Structure formats: structure tokens, C-alpha cells
């Protein structure tokens, strides 16, 4: 049986929400949803306060996700302006550069206000207005925060693309949302290495005729060629004022698009809107992390993922927090870096991914114990299931047994945490994200859609809307409905498997669809397969997940070559490099097996179940292979398994 960690006394006494409080919030959300949500919404600063809350329906006939529809607000004003009067001189953003020898930078709310206004005026001068899409392809530098918040200020829709994506992946995302303007930097830096962001944008631009303006932030000072469409940010910024009114936005006006991988096809543009999203980011940041003024909050994600959106920027800033942004890598210059940053900035709460913990754990405790870490009060994780061993290491070694571990389960689609502990209210079990937050309605179902009660294992659904829910797939409402609301009619299907124990605790078991969670990042098997088959020597490819000690899941690719092509190690590395170039390093296969044939049914469908088993090394239980068109291919696959 899993052991339980009770709420520590200091938390039981001092937290905003205690056990009774959590139960009361959940009960209120059930009993009077409208009253509950309108009351919660008051934590934001509304230009016009909403009088309606949830007007969503998951049914096909009147399908819609809509919250606080008659309210008006500006998200950037909520994150900055409203804090000016009482904490204008408090630090809003701490920037810790890649190189520890360099000085950190600090921006007060007042300074952030100026920077964001200036960025907003630069965008306006370029003709960007409400509803226009701006693609942001920046490293983890303060300008990334300024650019994002500047879009929110003027009502432009940002689409942040992770700096690790290739020119091709970037071009696809620029095209999909039809953005005419990209903000980038000369180069990015990570772990002492340079990332040629501007060169990547140049390569992408060749494929996107509609891209007419590229604004380049000078980050490293590298020489980069400037074409007709390119402008230096610092030159444009010199000519604009630091005063820019915040655009009043309807609660349901779009705030951002963020591309994420699914089971099939190209990445989807997940759309979040203004009111509900900001409320959810802000509320969950408070519920899960109980932030207090003066504390230093550090979410060690990249701004290119939803965690960076919700918990580096929107949630904490809406709550008036001091948020730390880190340009570097946990393992550079050595495995002590995270803990040194914690000490240097007296970080109170650290929020990171299990994969980072596993990478640091294997370097040994000395890198941790050499540091002080006494400023820490809470530790959070997100992005993938955390194995109990990593959980205990985080709790016992990093937190010296003092800090509750806040394991938050959620998704790009959910906007913020959904199943998670509250530090003053929830006893913890290593490996469990614990309980649904107030207002969140999960259900477990079997394959047929029968709802399972009590202790059970099945597929995880959410049966009614919550404020942070995504509103649509950009430009494709039908794909939104088909992807999430047709597997189990009337509910949102998460794509995750989950077990609920006798105490009602939820244990996420991982994706049950064709999404692989690599180091906490989502990768669609179909995307990697399409990249592989683009190679002239490849006839066919099938990609599955496999267990990986640090990444959680790795990528295992089966490749069938064209007739007459020799399978050798040189070609194997060439194909791995190829995927890296086509999509980005996060998509590079960890194992690649040449397969003369793939296991297919007589109707030609690849049997991924068998491929998964072989990749996992679990070849004793391949199940029934008699329905295969050619059962003999399986013997070859088993015999030539790699890794
Ligand atoms: C997985 C990241 C277990 C899950 C915020 C989900 C988790 C996918 C957890 C979403 C967790 C996220 N425990 N699994 N605490 N958090 N996941 O969209 O499979 O990048 O569906 O959002 O990550 O990944 P995404």
C-alpha cells in the first residue's frame, strides 16, 4: 500500500485553505455553481463584471464552451496595472541568465508596465491590432514576457512557439494561424550553447509568403543578416512611448493559441480566451501554491509550453507574485544549478517536471546537499506521472522533508491545474496528483463508456466545463468537437488513463492514445512518422512510446526502407538527425529499428499494440497475432529489437 504524508502542522494552521475549507469550496461549487464562479471571478479586475458564469454545453446540438460572457477585462492590466498602486515597486520578474557568472535582472511592476507598454506600442506601430495573430519565437529572456503581455494589452492573439522547434515546425504554426508578424531574437542560449533562432525564422519565412514582418530582439549580439522584412526591436522601441492604454476585451475574446500534439494529424492550435483562462490560472496558482506577497515563485518551465504561460506569467502575475524566469538548463554548468538559483534568489516555491528531477537525482545527492535551500516552502511537479522514487527524493533530499509536494495533473487544453493537492488541505501520496480541485468533475469510464464508481481504473473524463477549458481548435471547431467530445458523448475526454483508489485519490497512468510524453513534452506519433517517411530512403514508419529512465517515455521508431536500401548504423543516425531537423530535438527517436515489414491486420491497419509491447521489451505477452496478414514479421521484429 502506498504511504501517506499528512498535512504538516505549519500548513494545517497557516494555509489559506485547510481540509474543511477545501471540502467547503467543493461543496459550494456543486451546490451553486453560478454563485460560486461569479464569486471566484471577483478576484480579477473587471471593466464590466460578468453577471453570467458557465453557459457551456458538451452536447453536439448546442456545443459551445463559454464563461462569463458579458464580462469585460484586460488580461495584461490584471497582471500589471492593478498592482501598481500597492506594489508598484515590488519585483514582478526576476530573470536568471543561462550563464551563472552574469548578473540577474529584476523588473518591478512599474518597470514591467513600461516595458510591456513599449512593446505594445511597437506592435501597434506595425499595424497589429485586436484579434491579429502574433507568433513569438523567443528564448527565455525578459522580452518573451514583454511580448506576450504586450499582445494581451492590445488584444492581439499570441502564438508562442517553443525555441526548440525546427524551421519547418515553426512555418507550419505561422501558416496555420495566419500570422503576419513574428517576434524572434538573434540567437537563444541554453547550457552554454547557441540556438540560431533568427536563422530558423529566415528558413521558415521562405515557406510562408504571408509573413511580412520579423521583429528581432538583440539577445546575444550575434551578427545576423537583416532582410527587407526584418526590424531590430531596440530601434523600433526607441521611437515609441511607454504609455499604451489597455484594450477592453470581452471575456470570450481570444487571448492565445498554443500548438500541441494529438493522436492524429498536425499539431492543434489550442485556443484560450481572456476571462475564464485568467481566472483559472490565477485561482489554481493560489489554491495549489498559497502564494504570499514577498515570496519568490519559480516555475522552471519554458514559455513555449502551457506551463510557462499559466505559471510563469499569467497566474502568478495576476496574483501580484514575484516570478522567476530561468534561461538555462538544470544540469549546466553542473547538476547544482537549480539549487544555486534557489539560494541566490531565495526561492520559496519551485515548480518543475519529474524528468528534470530524475536527471538530477542520478547525479547524486551531493549537488543538492551542498546548497542551503532553507527558503523553500513548497515543491511542485507537472507534466507527467512522477514515479514514487523521484517524489521521495524531491521530498526528502531537496525539501529536507519540510516541503509538501504539489503534483498537479492538467493539460494544455485545461489551462491550469485540475487534479492537485492544496498544501494546507491535502494529505499526500507519492505518485498521486490527489484530488480534483473545487469545481472540477472527473469521471472514470471503461472502454464502453460505462462510468466506474469507487476504486477503479479506466479512462479519465471531465464531465462538465470549467473556466480554464480550451474554447476551440483554431480555425477548426469541428476538429475540437471530434477530438475531445465524441469518444464518450457528453464529456471531455482527456486522453489519459487513471486509477482511483479507495480514498478517492487519482493516479494518472499515462496517455491511452497515440501521444507520447517525452520529458513532459507531448509528441504525436503521427508527426514523427510523417517526418520519417519524408526521407527518400524510407518506405514506411511506425512510432510508439517506450519506457525511459530519465524522460519518462522515449520514442521508439520502426522503419521500413525502400527496396534495395542497405540498413546500417550510418543510416540509423541519419534518420534520427533527419527527424531532429524536421521537427526538433524533442522528437528525435531514442531507438530506431529497421523492420522489413510491420505487423498489419488484413485490412492494412498497423497493430501498434504489438509494436508497443516489443518496444517495452515485453515480448512474452504479445497476445493474439493470428489476425495479422503476415504473422512472421513479428518474429523478425522481436529478434531485431534495439536497446
Ligand atoms: C501528462 C502539461 C501525470 C498527461 C501541463 C496529460 C501528467 C499531458 C501530469 C498533458 C501529472 C501532465 N501526472 N501525468 N501531474 N501532468 N501529465 O498538454 O498525460 O503538455 O494528458 O500539459 O501530460 O501535457 P501538456
What are the key terms here?
643 residues, alpha/beta, GMP Synthetase, Chain A, domain 3, 31% helix, 22% strand, binds 5'-O-[(S)-ethoxy(hydroxy)phosphoryl]adenosine
Q: How does this model look, in words?
A:
With 643 residues, the chain is α/β, with parallel strands linked by helices. Helix 6 crosses helix 7. The mean pLDDT is 96. The protein has a domain at 519-640: 2-Layer Sandwich (GMP Synthetase, Chain A, domain 3), CATH 3.30.300. 31% of the residues lie in helices and 22% in strands. Strand 12 and strand 13 form a beta hairpin. The chain is built from 21 helices and 29 strands. The strands form seven sheets. Strands 10-9-6-4-5-12-13-22 form an eight-stranded mixed β-sheet, sandwiched between helices. A seven-stranded mixed β-sheet has the order 3-2-15-14-16-17-18, sandwiched between helices. A five-stranded antiparallel β-sheet has the order 20-19-21-23-24. It is globular. 5'-O-[(S)-ethoxy(hydroxy)phosphoryl]adenosine binds next to helix 12, strand 18, strand 23 and strand 24.
Amino acid at each position: 500500500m502506498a504511504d501517506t504524508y499528512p498535512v504538516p502542522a505549519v500548513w494545517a494552521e497557516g494555509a489559506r485553505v485547510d481540509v474543511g475549507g477545501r471540502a467547503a469550496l467543493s461543496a459550494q461549487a456543486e451546490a451553486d455553481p453560478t454563485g460560486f464562479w461569479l464569486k471566484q471571478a471577483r478576484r480579477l479586475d473587471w471593466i464590466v463584471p460578468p453577471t453570467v458564469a458557465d453557459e457551456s454545453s458538451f452536447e453536439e446540438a448546442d456545443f459551445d464552451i463559454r464563461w462569463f460572457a458579458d464580462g469585460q477585462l484586460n488580461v495584461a492590466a490584471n497582471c500589471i496595472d492593478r498592482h501598481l498602486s500597492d506594489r508598484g515597486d515590488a519585483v514582478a520578474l526576476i530573470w536568471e541568465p543561462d550563464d551563472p557568472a552574469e548578473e540577474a535582472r529584476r523588473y518591478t511592476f512599474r518597470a514591467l508596465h513600461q516595458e510591456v507598454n513599449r512593446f505594445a506600442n511597437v506592435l501597434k506601430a506595425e499595424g497589429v491590432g485586436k484579434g491579429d495573430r502574433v507568433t513569438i519565437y523567443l528564448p527565455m529572456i525578459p522580452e518573451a514576457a514583454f511580448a506576450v503581455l504586450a499582445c494581451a494589452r492590445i488584444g492581439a492573439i499570441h502564438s508562442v512557439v517553443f525555441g526548440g522547434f525546427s524551421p519547418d515546425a515553426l512555418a507550419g504554426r505561422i501558416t496555420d494561424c495566419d500570422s503576419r508578424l513574428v517576434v524572434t531574437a538573434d540567437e537563444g542560449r541554453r547550457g552554454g550553447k547557441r540556438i540560431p533562432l533568427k536563422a530558423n525564422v529566415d528558413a521558415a519565412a521562405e515557406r510562408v509568403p504571408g509573413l511580412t514582418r520579423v521583429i528581432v530582439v538583440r539577445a546575444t549580439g550575434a551578427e545576423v543578416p537583416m532582410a527587407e522584412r526584418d526590424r531590430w526591436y531596440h530601434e523600433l522601441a526607441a521611437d515609441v512611448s511607454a504609455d499604451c492604454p489597455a484594450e477592453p476585451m470581452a471575456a470570450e475574446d481570444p487571448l492565445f493559441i498554443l500548438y500541441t500534439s494529438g493522436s492524429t494529424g498536425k499539431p492543434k492550435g489550442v485556443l484560450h480566451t481572456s476571462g475564464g483562462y485568467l481566472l483559472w490560472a490565477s485561482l489554481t496558482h493560489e489554491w495549489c501554491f498559497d502564494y504570499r506577497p514577498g515570496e519568490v515563485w519559480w516555475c522552471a518551465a519554458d514559455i513555449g509550453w502551457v506551463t510557462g504561460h499559466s505559471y510563469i506569467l499569467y497566474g502568478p502575475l495576476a496574483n501580484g507574485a514575484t516570478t522567476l524566469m530561468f534561461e538555462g538548463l538544470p544540469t549546466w554548468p553542473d547538476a547544482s544549478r537549480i539549487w544555486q538559483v534557489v539560494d541566490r534568489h531565495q526561492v520559496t516555491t519551485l515548480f518543475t517536471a519529474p524528468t528534470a528531477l530524475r536527471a538530477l537525482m542520478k547525479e547524486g545527492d551531493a549537488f543538492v546537499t551542498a546548497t542551503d535551500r532553507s527558503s523553500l516552502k513548497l515543491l511542485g511537479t507537472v507534466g507527467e506521472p512522477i514515479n514514487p522514487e523521484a517524489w521521495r527524493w524531491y521530498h526528502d533530499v531537496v525539501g529536507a522533508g519540510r516541503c509538501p509536494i504539489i503534483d498537479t495533473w492538467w493539460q494544455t487544453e485545461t489551462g491550469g491545474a485540475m487534479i492537485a493537492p492544496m498544501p494546507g488541505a491535502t494529505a499526500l501520496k507519492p505518485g498521486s496528483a490527489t484530488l480534483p480541485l473545487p469545481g472540477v468533475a472527473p469521471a472514470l469510464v471503461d472502454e464502453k463508456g460505462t462510468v466506474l464508481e469507487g476504486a477503479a481504473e479506466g479512462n479519465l473524463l471531465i464531465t462538465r466545463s470549467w473556466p480554464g477549458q480550451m474554447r476551440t481548435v483554431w480555425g477548426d471547431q469541428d476538429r475540437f468537437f471530434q477530438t475531445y467530445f465524441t469518444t464518450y458523448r457528453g464529456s471531455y475526454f482527456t486522453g489519459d488513463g487513471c486509477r482511483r483508489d479507495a480514498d478517492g485519490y487519482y493516479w494518472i497512468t499515462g496517455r491511452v492514445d497515440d501521444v507520447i510524453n517525452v520529458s513532459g513534452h507531448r509528441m504525436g506519433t503521427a508527426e514523427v512518422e510523417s517526418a520519417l517517411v519524408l526521407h527518400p530512403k524510407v518506405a514506411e514508419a511506425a512510432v510508439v512510446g517506450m519506457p525511459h529512465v530519465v524522460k519518462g517515455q522515449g520514442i521508439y521508431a520502426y522503419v521500413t526502407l525502400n527496396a534495395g536500401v542497405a540498413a546500417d548504423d550510418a543510416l540509423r543516425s541519419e534518420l534520427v538527425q533527419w527527424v531532429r531537423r524536421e521537427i526538433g530535438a524533442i522528437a528525435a527517436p531514442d531507438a530506431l529499428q529497421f523492420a522489413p515489414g510491420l505487423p498489419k491486420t488484413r485490412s492494412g491497419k498497423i497493430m501498434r499494440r504489438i509494436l508497443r509491447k516489443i518496444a517495452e521489451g515485453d515480448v512474452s505477452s504479445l497476445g493474439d497475432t493470428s489476425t495479422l496478414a503476415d504473422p512472421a514479421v513479428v518474429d523478425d521484429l522481436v529478434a531485431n529489437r534495439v536497446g
